[in-house]
What does this fold into?
Amino acid sequence: MTGSAPLRLLVRTSEIDPSGDLVQHADPHRPLVWLRRGEGMVGAGEVARLDVNASAHEPRALALSRAWAQLCADATVEDAVGLPGTGMIGFGALTFDERSAASSSIVVPARVIGRRDGRAWLTSIRLHDGDEHRPDPVPFGPFWSATVGPGALDADGYQAAVRGALAAIRDGEVGKVVVARDLVGTVPEGADLRRLVHALAGGYPDTWTYAVDGIVGASPETLVTVSRGRVTARVLAGTRPRGADAVEDAAAASALAASAKDLDEHGYAVHSVTSALGPHVSHLTADAHPFTLELPNVWHLATDVAGTLTDGSTSLDLIRALHPTAAVAGTPTDAAIEVIRRLEPFDRGRYAGPVGWIDAHGDGEWAIALRGAQFGAHAVGGLIPVTAHAGAGIVAGSDPESELLETRVKFRPIVDALA
It folds into this structure.
């Protein structure tokens, strides 16, 4: 594991003026961002990183949890603010599949600027024997646009994959499986990815706008939040496009709320979350019936889940228990992943994996990396490769053409922002 050698970090958090644009403090080319409704954190620089690859010995989340705990145990933290997100912080992105060729990583920035509840802070992180690194804000670079098109699974191929999923359901392999497709393209070398962050944050303010180690997006789905013993999650499964006018829009929401197919899909997802959290929390509650969540491009069926942590688990420990949920994989989980490996001709990488942040206490906020794109670390011929994914939950009764339409709607946030 990169970063496994002992490091002694010195962390200082102090309060600052809460005004200003947080995103300007991020690195233009490898931004670290976690924002919703104008609040959150951005990071710049890199003091340390933890990278975990596929291993037969232990799950990635467990390996990262152990390495993070050791890094924090060796750190000296001076936190004069004491809000969620202050003190020692790492930004993380994990792969969807344990077998992925991509790494699961936590990046520790040299500087974090955060804002919450009308207060703001600056956190400086450096080696005990190193100089403090305080990178200055960088002006936004010029606007740019990306070119994207069909990837390894085009429209016809995706519908064929959905039919394969339906066959697996009929054969009793799975009750539900999420099948994704990909778009691939390029952006100009040197593109300021903060422009993409701004577009997503402005267009989808009620989602988590995230940027971590090359993956950027706007996720509507909170995988898990752990804050001072309180555990919360939001489950999304079941989708309808927004209507063209108020009457059509209301009809779309009503149809979603009454859809037996979508309610069935949603039920699988809620059950997977409550079953995973049950051993770790007490007073676990979940909405008796899902509500319709309004986003600029879609309606979702949503259920909020909450409980009180009882066993001292960190947010990474709960990620290990929760991921992948039925909302992004299917059920039963192991069988669904095998069907996905068989039907999808690509490695999902960090798409549909956990993305978020963790602090020295193990608290943190994590979403599922949806509605996003993954950027290559190196340019080829002056262009940086980019890949976006979108998927749909397949259950008995799913229609391949309708599921293809759902992926088109889900691609809209990232494709519009890239353009």
